[in-house]
Amino acid sequence: MSPPLDWLSRLLEITPVRGQLDLRCMYGAPWRIDQSESAPGEIPYHVVLGGTAVLDDPAGGKPQQLTAGDIVLLADGDAHALHDGSGKRAKPSRERAVANLILSENAGSGARLDMLCGRFVLAPGHVRLLRGYLPSRLIAHASAQPEAATDTGLHLSNLLGLMRVETSGDSLGGRAMLNALSTALFALTLRFASESQEAPEGLLALAGYPRLAPALEAMFHDPAHPWTLPALAQLCNMSRATFVRLFQEKLGRSASDLLTDIRMTMAANALRTSSASTGSIAEMAGYQSEAAFQRAFKLHMGTTPAAWRRG
Questions:
Q1: Structural domains in the chain plus CATH codes
Q2: Does position 122 have pLDDT exceeding 60, yes or no?
Q3: Do 188 and 2 meet the contact criterion of CB atoms below 8 Å apart?
């Protein structure tokens, strides 16, 4: 018998994420990083281990000041820039290979920055569910004082400490450890953000709102169930109208949208990883009619189930 899974464990089960650490940046001011748009299916991340950095808003909004312990996930994979904030021309950087990673350095003599840069890699069928329901820019501040830190905050700080250690030595299996720690960083950052007093938009805001949590858990735990809005509202002990309003307010999308995305992600996985018939997969995804499933899948994924399986 499999144990029941919480919504985040279930999300990461049906949308596995692989972490990869690319660089450790050790710069003196003035410095600047211009990162181009990420490849499809990749979410870049940055972890400030020491010093400070400024993350520009490409839309022209207020720049975000980052300090030691801050973690940035850019779910949309958009081009972005980080710099020291001085406005001076950056010193050119150079890269050199060290044990298990690439170290990027410059000749700047000002305030020092120590930062890890990497990415989370997603399979094609998982991009919509993760990118569509996570904040386009998620910034987690894991640098609270010990007496004010939550358990998750302490775990996250310990994880960053271990990543620092693994990037500082020549330990056996270090590269595998760094990538495994990067994968754990994704899950722990999402948990930390969902527990914050001001949870960001999307799934994290929904998870951080206890009144709607039963519906979220139900849809992830049993997506094939014929859920209706009244049934989900009843789980949350509220009227249908209140449920619809609050769900849309917190998630930015309807419960039906989320349920369809979960079902289609599961179906895409099954088509690629099993030999089950399309009809069986349709039933697993909550569709009593194979024809209805075929239409929904093509609308959602842009291709037929058969073409997706062949691909």
A1: 7-200 (2.60.120.280), 209-310 (1.10.10.60)
A2: yes
A3: no
